[in-house]
Write a structure and sequence with these properties.
99 residues; mainly alpha; 70% helix; 0% strand; globular
């Protein structure tokens, strides 16, 4: 299942449209969504930087491109599953977006 298929499965069309528009306009700030408070409450990580380090991402601006690759998504899902109460990064992101 591709990244867009996972998104479609987890998010409503209006949510997807909003996410896409925010991403295109540069308003989707992954670090703000997965902020320190969220990461400390729901994961074993103190912050987004620690999470990205575990994923092998050097810069938060690489996060979306990283997630386009299937192998990277599988790795991210495994890290999320091992270090949080979520089964996938998509599930974690959806919870973060509720905040």
């Amino acid at each position: 299942m591709g990244f867009m298929d996972q998104l479609k499965e987890q998010f409503s069309f209006s949510e997807l449209t909003g996410l896409y528009q925010s991403y295109k306009s540069g308003e989707l700030d992954v670090a703000a969504i997965l902020n320190d408070e969220f990461m400390q409450k729901y994961t074993d990580f103190d912050n987004m930087a620690a999470f990205m380090t575990k994923l092998g991402i050097q810069d938060k601006n690489q996060f979306i491109d990283f997630m386009k690759d299937r192998t990277n998504r599988q790795h991210a899902d495994q890290v999320v599953k091992e270090h949080s109460q979520f089964d996938s990064l998509i599930e974690m992101a959806k919870k973060a977006l509720e905040k």
